[in-house]
Amino acid sequence: MLEVRNLEVVYSDVILVLRGISLSIPDGSIVALLGANGAGKTTTLRAVSGLLDVHNGNVTKGEILLDGEPIHRKSAAKIVRLGVSQALEGRRILAEMSVEENLRLGAHTNHRSMDANMERVYHLFPLLRDRAKSTAGYLSGGEQQMLAIGRALMSAPRYLLLDEPSLGLAPLLVQQIRDIIVEINRQGTGVLLVEQNAMMALSIADHGFIMEIGKIVMDKPAGELLDDEDVREFYLGLSGDEVQSFAQVKHYRRKKRWLS
Amino acid sequence: MSTLLQAVLNGLALAAVYALIALGFVIIYKSMQVLSFAQPALMLFGGYFVVYFSSRLGLNFYLAVLLAIMVAGLSGLVIERSFLRPMVGKPVFAVAIMTIGIDLVVRIITGNLFGVESGGIGATGDPWGLGLFIGDPAFGATFHWGDVVLNQRRFAAIVAALLVIGILLAFFRYSRIGLAMRATAFDQEVALTQGVSVSSVFALSWAIAAALATVAALFISPNTGTIDVNMFAFALKALPVVVIGGMDSIGGALLAALIVGLAESLTITYQPVYAGFLGGSFSQVVPYLVMFVVLLVRPYGLFGTREVERV
User: Fold this and answer.
1) pTM (predicted TM-score)
2) Which of A111, A257, B110, B142 is least surrounded, with the fewest CB atoms within 10 Å of its CB?
3) Nearest chain A Cα to B194, which residue?
4) Does B36 reside within a domain?
């Protein structure tokens, strides 16, 4: 169980980004974390995988627990070794290096079982096997995303954190990525899925959290979120009675917050 | 013809030394985005230990070199750990100035270690034991092919540089740690998410730079085979090499070393004959002249990334 408890994060000592959020990822489940831009989703992931230092951020309150052990003071390298691996937003593959080298980098902490893990990644993404020797920067967007996810899997993590894997991909590719996430989860890896594409995320998640300006405002099983009136309107673009014609689409949505 | 061949051979030897020093600069720059001005001092420091182990303790020359490389690499680690680690996250400019301070301190320490005498790098004549390799222990200090004379130290410089650079490139290409270093240079945050300890990469890059500088120190005075504290200026000529190559490119640094080494050596040979009015020692200026010309055409160096930071 990976747990975030009452976490507060401050950037540059002054910018309060997370105001006490709590969420948990049970072993082997998919948890979706949704929210508008700037809500603090990426910061949450950074805190979990120990990347706040790079961005001059600090955990000022709360804790992150892995099986009850606090990990929020540990280094990023240590956290990866403990089995929490992240694929960063925007893919961030090593464009100058080959696909295989990218995967080898992913195996940095788990060198011994590199071959087995690489076989697993190639099995999940057969495309990557064909292009193993080609330069990663020349892959298409979808292939790059697959590489980023594959690289994160090379450490054989117990928990995989995915930051917007559907970013900038065509609908068909989003479907493909979605199916792969389900398959990864089926093989026993817990997934924390941060997404703008709420429909995709909620359709595969067991549980969903919705964030707004640094707080969790909704915490429900994914099925309930999908049926929720407000979620449907804000995140899925569906209102109670379907709009039949574009003429009736409101130009301004009513500003609504769950809090205040 | 033999004059030209002679100049080219000497130029290659010079290029080998420049390449070794320049690689140190580039490796540190790539991992930390800091231009380290401490390379000259590290070179002397490593050189001193070669002198100490080989001449003053009288150890086997190769063993002495190996020990000196280890001592230098270790002090590279210590320097990074104690002076540069606290500077992580500080402006690059501040860190670069810091390295100037480190250079001065290490150079003064080395000066005290040396004392007033200059030290001999191994025995005079044939420290490399090349005679043994070719089965002729009485073999002299030079190779002769017709009029062309190749000093043994120059020959050793070329061979050693090829060997060391080859090992280094293979290390970066095939080893786990080398890959982690390249990844850190490319995208630090990504390296972190894959479990690479970026601070160890910084430390390792200093150790490698110091070790390379030590190997370079063996060859900075090919004629006399001695080294003293005032020779730090030699390493400064690797700075134009790095700038010409483009700061963050290993291939660029190697090519630039070749260009500068050959240009300097050809100038030594031909300038007194054809352009004597430029005065003696004009060759000393040549690296900077080449840098000037290259920067006019390509401000970011031959192979540098365009938006390389200014220091």
Assistant:
1) 0.89
2) A257
3) A106
4) yes
